[in-house]
Amino acid sequence: MIKSRSESSRIRTRFAPSPTGLLHMGNARTALFNYLFAKNQGGDFVLRIEDTDKERSKPEYEQDVLDNLRWLGLEWTEGVEKEGFYGPYRQSERTELYQKYLTKLLDEKKAYECFCSEEELDAQRQYQMSIGEAPRYSGKCSSLSKEETAKKKKAGEKSVIRFVVIPKEVTFEDLIRGSVTFNTALSGDIVIAKDLETPLYNFSVVIDDSEMHITHIIRGEDHISNTPKQILLQEAMGFERPIYAHLPLVLGEDRTKLSKRHGDISVTRFRDAGYLPEALVNFLALLGWNPGTEEEIFSLSALCKQFSFEKTQKAGAVFNFKRLDWINGFYLRQKSPSTLAELCTPFLEQAGLVEKVSEDIVVKETGEKLSKAIVEKIVVLYQDRLKKLSEIGELADFFFKKRVEYTAEMLSWKETPKEETKNALNMFEEIISGISESDWTKEKLENVLMPEAEKQKSRGVVLWPLRVALTGKEASAGPFEIAEILGKKRTLEYLKEAKEKLS
RNA sequence: GGCCCUAUCGUCUAACGGUCAGGACAGCGGCUUUUCAAGCCGUCAAUCGGGGUUCGAUUCCCCGUAGGGCCGCCA
To answer: Complex ipTM, two decimals?
Structure first.
């Protein structure tokens, strides 16, 4: 399961989320950078679920992390082996290990049991802050004798386990920030476990990073002040110190740490809105890293080849939705018709326009079965206009509806009088009627209709009402290609309907 | 309040002592065009302030200032 130290001189990174919410963009970026660095170095990328908080950890959140990591293409390369593949490591399954070290620290008097109440500690913190001191634990229970401790426990007094923080200067080298120094005297003895079965973050993380032979700890900048505490813990247990890299934070528009209050920023939400994994990866990579060239488009494998911490930013980066849209649109435009059709289908279903009946795509309103070719033609029409897949429904709904809704006013191009619009429609109807079903192509339609349109003051006089008649919209793809897909019968029906609206 | 981190166009960023401070997104304008896009072209827009060091600072140092992060029996 876990490789021994001798065979693991290679680079190992880890992503260690707590399953207390949906995987969000900030965490996804941390996972990505861990993955990129590991791959770049030919190393391993370990996934560890930090579910020591029994109340807040939920299996569905863990599932969300796993699903989205896979969806993004960030497959972890190691974990608990299960039926041929790797599940993630879970801290909840490693309690014995933590207990072993906890007992050891207690025995060596590097940790002690503390009976102070939360209220008591709260009041102390408040007071210290009010007089401008760093809030820290007084060390009150550190001097308790063995007998006193035993007595209190016997009396049923609640206790936690504190680690004796040695006051000193701790300096570590950060791959992104260089040398960082903290004075641990400013922090009191920290709580490392609620009890022998319930370790807390700062403690379990140190054990696991050592046990799993993690060589590089790549995490958000919000962990920078946890680092000296973890280093002290490493020293107390005789562990090797890993190399640190603290990533700049992903920020919201207001330049504060990206969180729920900036809206739903879960990966799942972006996935549901029709963003492509390659777009998200590309976008996230450029949030804090740059290639040093003017290239903007990177596949995951290209990122793996080029990634380095030298090109990593120190300052936080605002999550820019418009830029994400642009990148997503770019990737959408690269898709083949059949891939695009496959990608769009779930979104057409979601919009209530079609249904999948076994392998067939069926129009919900009419029950008509759609050929693969037709679906492809439809989505290709909107390929250039799509920023995200979820937009396809609204853009192309008229293909799947019996009747499109619009007002008579919409039919007229600019200031064109009603009569003129009606005449134009009449003229088109007449010409179109003469085209045979077998000739019904956008080229044919354009060839016969365009010359007539040219005779008008402006082509818009006829082309505009044609579009509105067919789509019910003021903005759409070209009317000839739409008419081709709609077919002769429906096209004529829609024209007739438009004329009725005008009279 | 204490500690730590950070600072180039609105946003993401390039320039590792010498550039007209470059690119991209967004914005704006144009071309194309029946519309909306896409595409192409153009345009607006930045080195937080003050001291040093240096022939020369966006770049190195110091001091301010501003922003952020952390100060949990969460992670």
So the answer is: 0.96
> Smallest CA–C1' separation from A222: which nucleotide?
B69
pLDDT tens string, chain A, 503 residues long: the values are 444 444 557 999 999 999 999 999 999 999 999 999 999 999 999 999 999 999 999 999 999 999 999 999 999 987 777 777 788 999 999 999 999 999 999 999 999 999 999 999 988 888 888 887 888 999 999 999 999 999 999 999 999 999 999 999 999 999 999 999 999 999 999 999 999 999 999 999 999 999 999 999 999 999 999 999 999 999 999 999 999 999 999 999 999 999 999 999 999 999 999 999 999 999 999 999 999 999 999 999 999 999 999 999 999 999 999 999 999 999 999 999 999 999 999 999 999 999 999 889 999 999 999 999 999 999 999 999 999 999 999 999 999 999 889 999 999 998 889 999 999 999 999 999 999 999 999 999 999 999 999 988 889 999 999 999 999 999 999 999 999 999 999 999 999 999 999 88
pTM of the model: 0.95
Letter for the amino acid at A281?
V
Residue boundaries of the structural domains of chain A: 5-93+250-318, 95-247, 336-400, 408-502
Nucleic acid strand B within 7 Å of A135 CB: yes
Q: Say whether the CB atom of A182 is under 7 angstroms from strand B.
A: yes
SS3 content of chain A, % helix, strand, coil (to 5): 50, 15, 35
Q: Is CATH 3.40.50.620 the right assignment for the domain spanning A95-247? A: yes
Does the CB of A477 sit below 7 A from strand B?
Answer: yes
Question: Residue A137 and residue A228: Cα distance in Å, rounded?
Answer: 17
A392 CB less than 7 Å from any atom of strand B: no
Q: Which residues contact A262 (CB under 8 A, 6 or more apart)?
A: A252, A253, A254, A319
Positions on chain B within 7 A of a protein C-beta: 1-8, 10-15, 22-26, 33-39, 67-75
* A331: CB partners within 8 A, 6+ apart: A276, A278, A279, A282
Q: Which residues of A are catalytic?
A: 260
A 10 A CB-CB count for A293 gives 7
Nearest CA to A204 among A189, A186, A212, A32?
A: A212
Strand B, CB < 7 A, residues 226-285 of A = 226, 248-249, 251, 254-257
DSSP A25: H
Q: Is the CB of A195 under 7 A from strand B?
A: no
A5-93+250-318, what's its fold?
A: Rossmann fold (3.40.50)
Which class does domain A408-502 fall in?
mainly alpha
Answer whether A5-93+250-318 and A95-247 agree in fold. Answer: yes
Protein A162 CA to nucleic acid B65 C1', in Å?
39
Asked if the Cβ of residue A116 lies within 7 A of any atom of strand B, the reply is: yes
Strand B and A311 CB separated by under 7 Å: yes
Through-space separation of residue A327 CA and nucleotide B8 C1' in angstroms: 24
Distance CA A217 to C1' B39 in A: 44
